[in-house]
Amino acid sequence: MIKFINLKKEIPYTIFREKYEEAHRKGQKNIEAVAISSYDCKKKEVESRFVNLKFVDDGSFIFFSNYKSPKSLAFESHNQISALLYWDSINIQIRMKSKISKTSLHFNKNYFKGRSLKKNALAISSHQSSYIESYEGVQQNFSKALNSSNLSECPEYWGGFSFVPYYFEFWEGHKSRLNKRDAYEKVDDAWNHHVLQP
Amino acid sequence: MIKFINLKKEIPYTIFREKYEEAHRKGQKNIEAVAISSYDCKKKEVESRFVNLKFVDDGSFIFFSNYKSPKSLAFESHNQISALLYWDSINIQIRMKSKISKTSLHFNKNYFKGRSLKKNALAISSHQSSYIESYEGVQQNFSKALNSSNLSECPEYWGGFSFVPYYFEFWEGHKSRLNKRDAYEKVDDAWNHHVLQP
């Protein structure tokens, strides 16, 4: 589930919310899963992974991560990303492009306090994407963290990322394959609308 | 559905096939949907979209597109991409990184001939991702193409893209959130295996 807070009253946000509610009513699984793609200027590499969207706060889409993970390093080297959702229950694809930045320490600390201790133990114990000898090693690190750490204190290497898209595309699949594509691009303070060919 | 042809006998391909068969047995919807992400060096922009994988031929993953579409231009400017699949029926995410290139004219022509005339009319009539006045315009262009074109002749602006990954990650979600991550990276002619922290 995604939590909506004071959602921006602008057309792509309104459509996003409507489609979300429709997919949710249809029992969409993993409705919060979004593919975040980044470009690392040093490695000259595009990379993608799914993360869970937690909030849409005003105009900002927010998810959480380890700040030392490869994706965090990629965001530092190139702060523009794409975000891609697909809800099969309503056959809708949503494409977004955005700049991305970290949320505040204050925000991270508050959010971390409210999470389950188990989730926090995992955030504390895992050096996200680093190599480890075996999956058993992962389980051992986790058990250690569960027993020893202060589990409501947010480590400085963990927190949120926030992105405010400058581009949305809503793609609706049709059986005829004449898919419907509506794009919204922010130019100055307005959203330009275009219909795209399938 | 993805068609497998003389699949490469190397470990990440074997795992890919096994997971595919498992997801297919569980009735996975849109099993062929893969998020392809590209970087356009001119626009300095990452962009992502879902496409349908059609073949895994030896070591090559193949999908089709309009060669004048924004993704084709992005591949020309930076020929490295990421490919991301998620099969919710078995809670598996597959992450790949690869170089990408066009398939041969001969291959494209042969494949085009075997497709339905309706699909071909769409490929011929649509200037993929170009602006158009309205969705009705899309329908009109399609109707025109259906009636007038030689529908089994592949236009030069349509064809396949092929990618042979140098990196695979198989991510298995666990309820405990201690997700299992196995990465395979091609170094010279061998696949190096690593377990990654969740």
Characterise this structure.
The structure is a homodimer of 198-residue chains. With 198 residues, the first copy, chain A, is α+β, with helices and mostly antiparallel strands. Chain A has 2 domains: 3-114 and 156-196, Electron Transport, Fmn-binding Protein, Chain A (Pnp Oxidase, Chain A); 115-151, no CATH class. In chain A, 28% of the residues lie in helices and 40% in strands. Chain A is built from 5 helices and 11 strands. In chain A, helix 4 packs across helix 5 (135-148). The longest helix of chain A has 15 residues, at 11-25. Chain A is globular, with a radius of gyration of 18 Å. The model of chain A has no long low-confidence stretch (mean pLDDT 96). The interface between A and B is large, with 53 and 53 residues. Strand 11 (190-196) of chain A pairs antiparallel with strand 8 of chain B.
Characteristics of this structure?
globular, 198 residues, ten-stranded mixed β-sheet, 40% strand, homodimer, Pnp Oxidase, Chain A, alpha+beta
Low-confidence parts of chain A:
none
Shape of chain A: globular
- Strand fraction of chain A equals 35-45%
Distance between the termini of chain A: 30 Å
Rg of chain A (C-alpha, Å): 18 Å
The overall number of domains of chain A is 2
Q: CATH class of the largest domain in chain A, please?
A: Mainly Beta
Oligomer: homodimer
The interface involving the most residues is between: A-B, 53 and 53 residues
Q: CATH homologous superfamily of the largest domain in chain A, by name?
A: Electron Transport, Fmn-binding Protein, Chain A
Mean pLDDT of chain A: 96
Largest sheet entry of chain A? 10 strands, mixed
Number of strands of chain A: 11
Number of helices of chain A: 5
Helical amount of chain A: 25-40%
Class by helix and strand content of chain A? alpha+beta
CATH topology of the largest domain in chain A: Pnp Oxidase, Chain A
- Secondary-structure element order of chain A, N to C: EHEEEEHEEHHEHEEE
